[in-house]
Amino acid sequence: MKSKTGVLLGRLMRNIMRSPDTIITVAITPIMMMLMFVYVFGGAIETGTDNYVNYLLPGILLITIASGVAYTSLRLFTDVKSGLMARFITMPIKRSSVLWSHVLTSLVSNALTVVVVVFVALLMGFRSNADIMDWLAVIGILVLFTLALTWLAVIPGLTAGSLEGATAYSYPLIFLPFISSAFVPTETMPSIVRTFAENQPVTLIVDTIRALLYEGTVGNGIWTALAWCVGIMVIAFFIASKVFKRQLR
Predict the structure, then answer these.
(1) Is the terminal CB of the chain with fewer CB neighbours within 10 Å at N or C?
(2) Would you say 40 and 148 are in contact if contact means Cβ atoms under 8 Å apart?
(3) Is 110 helix (H, G, I), strand (E, B) or coil?
(4) What pLDDT is recorded for position 22?
């Protein structure tokens, strides 16, 4: 399985590298948002921090990943509609390798995009006092978040009837950070919005990453954030696997 998954992963990564505009396109939107919020709105937003880009970056990273996983749906949809998926499943390879190659491609391509966004943030003044263990924890959370959203992306990629349908699911995911602590503290929100914001997964994940990058200590919120990521990933994996098996009949 590993060798076949690697071959399929290589095919998808070669396609991306032949057209690196995919990574660039995914990076442009969060970078432009980061520039706009820091240099246009940053002076009017009170977050209790001296450097707004430090406050903003965790949420921007989640938006970057949410934007990137839409291409997983797109690539899967293209393989299904072109008949390439049907050809793959007739070959002497483990069928799960087909899905895992798309998931791992999402993981690699999103990692590259996140690196680009962090580099731009550094140019804008982003600084962190996190040690190596804190950074490893941040990377681990981002990997789990990417896997969770990617397995969600697999479902519309397999079932959508149109290109628009395959990618439309990503819009709510991109919008969700706006109703969280990603841009402003939840304390500044109206009570109903604040209740939703404080109890949705993006806020918990953003606050955990922010604590790791700047405070060095995290509370029990990290376990809730991890539980959200793992829970979404497991449920999405189960549904995606069922859908894939049903299509093979």
Answers:
(1) C
(2) no
(3) helix
(4) 66
CB 56 within 8 A of CB 34: yes
Residue 154 CB neighbours (<10 A) = 24
pLDDT digits 0-9 by tens, 163-173: 777 777 777 88
CA distance 67 to 110: 9
CB 74 within 8 A of CB 166: yes
State the DSSP string of 4-68: HHHHHHHHHHHHHHH-THHHHHHHHHHHHHHHHIIIIIGGG---S-S-HHHHHHHHHHHHHHHHH
Contact between 244 and 95 (Cβ < 8 Å): yes
Q: Helix H segments across 199-220?
A: 201-210
pLDDT score, position 2 = 47
Averaged pLDDT, 178-194: 91
More confident of the two residues 55 and 2:
55
Structure token pair of residue 121: 């943030």
pLDDT digits (tens, 9 = 90+) for 110-152: 998 999 999 999 999 999 988 899 999 999 999 999 999 999 9
Number of domains in the chain: 1
Q: Measured between alpha carbons, how far is 138 from 58 in angstroms, rounded to an integer?
A: 10
